[in-house]
Amino acid sequence: MRLAYADPPYPGQSAKHYGDHPDYAGEVDHRSLIEDMIGRYDGWALSTSNRALREVLSWSPPDVRILAWNKPIAPPMSGHGVYGWEPVIVSWARPPAKRDLRDTITVSPEQYTFRPKPDGYVTGSKPPAFCRWMFAWLGARPGDDFVDLFPGSGAVTRAWDAWSAQGDLLTLRAKGLPPYGWDLDNPPTFERRSPQSEDHDQTRAHEAEMRAEHGMPARSPQSEDHE
After folding, report:
1. Per-residue pLDDT for 109 more than 80?
2. Which domain, by its residues, includes 102?
3. 43 has which bridge partners?
4. Residue 13 CB contacts under 8 Å (≥ 6 apart), including other chains
5. Measuring CA to CA, which residue among 30, 25, 23, 59 is closest to residue 47?
6. Rounded average pLDDT over 101-130
7. Tell me, what CATH number does 110's domain have?
8. Could you tell me if residue 53 is inside a domain?
9. Residue 43, Cβ density class (10 Å: 0-12 exposed, 13-18 middle, ≥19 buried)
10. HEC string of the chain?
11. Which of 13, 28, 98, 117 is the most exposed place for a label (fewest CB within 10 A)?
């Protein structure tokens, strides 16, 4: 399946938040964006603002699902109150696999009020938990072709790569197969750390010296067996 996520500058906010970016190209044509996603992808999701939802939704197919990202930490806006949630419009490729998947998620975006922003940070970057929730609503599966149409900081693509890799491991485990790179005829062995290891011997020697110095009895073999 071909999947896409679009997190463009929200209508009317492009110049305010991204006017100083080298790739700034003015307002995004959301109507054309939605038409393009409908024609090119099996499933897609679009983030927007609650102020723009009415207009953006009018360009969407009637069977889309509207999700809500609730943000516990959201700045107050003078004369507007707090915008504490953002809509996500989803046209899934497959129905969600989890029957109890909620159409809301409550997670705060990354906060940098008291710490420096990382290199490449872009306003509006989505947190990993949001990304995994969005993937679930797309009906995504490892092996699908996923495109972040407005990559920004690259956070969504990194979340997809991590989610896909985890899905592969879970699938292999369910089938009783080893992870990629293992030789089925010569599976790897893992050395278990034993009480006879060099570090352990050095620790025990030091402890014995301390016990003797302070007149304490030596440790019994039975006590070592129970460590």
Report:
1. no
2. 2-174
3. 3
4. 49
5. 30
6. 73
7. 3.40.50.150
8. yes
9. buried
10. CEEEEECCCCCCCHHHHHCCCCCCCCCCCHHHHHHHHHHHCCEEEEECCCCCHHHHHHCCCCCCEEEEEECCCCCEECCCEECCEEEEEEECCCCCCCCCCCCEEECCCCCCCCCCCCCCCCCCCCCHHHHHHHHHHHCCCCCCEEEECCCCCCHHHHHHHHHHHHHHHHHHHHCCCCCCCCCCCCCCCCCCCCCCCHHHHHHHHHHHHHHHHCCCCCCCHHHHHCC
11. 98
Neighbours of 185 (CB within 10 A): 5
Contact between residue 14 and residue 26 where contact means Cβ atoms under 8 Å apart = yes
pTM for the model stands at 0.66
Residue bearing the bigger pLDDT, 198 or 78:
78
Which of 58-67, 126-135, 157-166, 175-184 is predicted most confidently? 58-67
- Do 196 and 160 belong together in one domain? no
Give the number of domains in the chain.
2
Check the CA dihedral 96-99-102-108 and report its sign: negative
Looking at the domain assignment, is residue 68 inside a domain?
yes
Indicate whether 126 and 204 sit together in one domain. no
